[in-house]
């Protein structure tokens, strides 16, 4: 169960101000303001094309805003040096692919590159960070195996280990559970929540699965048409009315009696109505 959302927390290391971002001539985000609560799991949800991945990429310095700015520790992230940003902020993009034959240890080691330069080469500190990251992500047993020999869930944990080896307090993840079995999704989200709550890391995660978002988010952000339309704790904003307004989804929101988490249950047409529609289509 995620910890309670602290609406009084004054610290916001990563913020967006009046952010407008797009591709070619089309603007995807329009004048967006956003503050990431520190030490919590923030989950971005919204229909396809709502701008959630675009917002994440802007926060990660991948997309340059047309207007506005992203501030990391009070500094414009797009005017900061790449290495300096990478020492503070880690990113797991959507659908990463490792080079063929790369072992798990070699992949995780790439997370140490931001900490190295001509004066600081490979060290015992790097080895410690890699071993710690693999242990936390539970991939130590795969260290010498090629990444492409592993299952989807195992590979995703290896990528998370790489980001952990970077040893940043801020981690952004774009749809890390996509194409994974439900059990693997749950295991992965449990891992991410432990990272935030037990090691005081700040996570921003883009998710499609609404029930996972409601179950694991400390801070939930709903987006539509390039704007943030709702934000707050799941208890405050995960409602039938908001699901209808944001996703055009008719659904009931109930509380699971065992976990006490909120669950979205889509409203189905009655069997009679379905039979009528089928009969009309056949005729």
Commentary on this structure:
It is a single chain. The protein is of the alpha/beta class. The protein has one domain (14-234): P-loop containing nucleotide triphosphate hydrolases (Rossmann fold), CATH 3.40.50. Helices cover 34% and strands 25% of the residues. It has helices at 52-59, 82-86, 104-109, 124-136, 152-165, 182-199, 210-216, 234-237, 240-247, 271-282; strands spanning 14-23, 26-36, 41-45, 67-72, 75-76, 89-92, 170-174, 202-206, 219-224, 227-232, 251-255, 262-266. A 6-stranded mixed beta sheet has the order 6-7-8-3-9-10, with helices on both faces. A hairpin with a 6-residue loop joins strand 11 (251-255) and strand 12 (262-266). Helix 4 runs antiparallel to helix 5. The protein is globular and about 60 Å long. Mean pLDDT is 89; it is low at 1-10 and 276-283.
Query: What shape does the CA trace take?
Result: globular
CATH superfamily: P-loop containing nucleotide triphosphate hydrolases
Please identify the structural class as seen in this structure: alpha/beta
Beta-strand share of residues: 15-25%
Query: Could you say what the CATH topology is called?
Result: Rossmann fold
- CATH domain class name: Alpha Beta
Q: Please compute the radius of gyration using only Cα atoms.
A: 20 Å
- Total DSSP E strands: 12
Number of structural domains: 1
Average pLDDT score: 89
Low-confidence stretches: 1-10, 276-283
- Share of residues in helices: 25-40%
